[in-house]
Specification:
The chain is α+β, with helices and mostly antiparallel strands. It has two domains: 84 residues, Elongation Factor Tu (Ef-tu), domain 3; 141 residues, Threonyl-tRNA Synthetase, Chain A, domain 2, CATH 3.30.980. 31% of the residues lie in helices and 32% in strands. The protein is built from six helices and 16 strands. The strands form four sheets. A six-stranded antiparallel beta barrel has the order 2-3-7-6-5-8. A hairpin with a 3-residue loop joins strand 13 and strand 14. Helix 2 crosses helix 3. The longest helix is centred in the middle third of the chain and has 25 residues. It starts with 5 loop residues before the first strand and ends with a helix.
Length: 271
């Protein structure tokens, strides 16, 4: 699909504000579909949420999609065609999604490199990222994946983006983040992952902070792995730490003795 607008986030994923001309504004239901000459708003994909934010400070951009080569901004108010608008993305939301997105690439790259499993699909939510792979992964396997993924985070490697020609793509080994999309952009994390991807990423792996695998489930030949990264991981640590601290006080026991204490209580209840 040829893009009819300039995707500013391709070259600068840290761009928070921009100015652009309004190409069209069409009312649809309770919203308005706005197209611009250029945009920093990343549209939603089959697995990743779109950016949200504002135009001119007061016009809310609730969602962004891609239609016929343009990013369509769903707004709660109309804007005048031909006018220049000032766009501003919700940076906290964008940065969180970039942390999760680049972390997903790293985990998938580590699993592909070390176990040869292709990613079936991934699903991003506001609490976690679920990634499905072809093949089983043991607890020991996932412990290695998490350790190796965080080694890549700590290395602070530059996350590269490339726009290869058709000829270059034919000789390039890469995986697909979304099989429904035509390949126009490659995201490369050195010694980890090469993937066709159109979404925004952090600039260096160190900006992720940390990656934590929070669960896994194997069924019918595939493993679903759930991860949290960046600030989400810190919030999760604080939440779980508070639970352990409260249990320690409740049972009047040090943290490393909580499991035996709870087992004794369970046995007593079931006796």
């Amino acid at each position: 699909m040829d893009e009819l607008d300039e995707r500013l986030y391709y070259e600068d994923s840290f761009l928070e504000e921009f100015d652009a001309e309004v190409v069209s504004c069409k009312e649809e239901g309770h919203y308005y579909k706005v197209a611009l000459t250029e945009t920093a708003f990343s549209p939603e994909t089959s697995y990743l949420y779109s950016d949200v934010g504002t135009l001119n400070g007061t016009v809310r951009v609730i969602r962004a999609t891609e239609e016929d080569g343009r990013v369509i901004h769903y707004t709660d108010q109309p804007v005048e065609v031909g006018s220049i608008v000032h766009g501003k993305i919700d940076w906290e939301y964008r940065f969180d999604m970039m942390q999760q997105h680049t972390a997903e690439h790293i985990v998938s790259g580590v699993i592909m490199t070390n176990f040869g499993y292709e990613q079936v699909y991934s699903k991003f939510t506001e609490t976690e990222v679920a990634i499905v792979y072809h093949g089983p992964l043991s607890a020991e396997d996932l412990e290695y994946v998490e350790r190796r993924a965080n080694e890549i985070v700590i290395s602070n490697a530059v996350v590269e983006t490339r726009f290869p020609s058709k000829e270059e793509l034919e000789s390039m080994a890469y995986r697909m983040d979304d099989v429904s999309e035509p390949v126009s952009r490659i995201v490369l994390i050195p010694d980890c992952d090469i993937c066709a991807c159109r979404g925004p990423h952090v600039m260096t792996t160190g900006e992720i902070g940390m990656i934590k695998i929070t669960g896994s489930d194997y069924a019918d030949g595939v493993t679903q792995v759930t991860i949290i990264s960046g600030h989400r991981a810190l919030v999760d640590y604080h939440r779980k730490s508070a639970i352990v601290e409260n249990l320690s006080k409740l049972f009047d026991a040090p943290e490393d003795q909580l499991v035996p204490q709870i087992k004794k209580l369970k046995e007593w209840i079931e006796a």
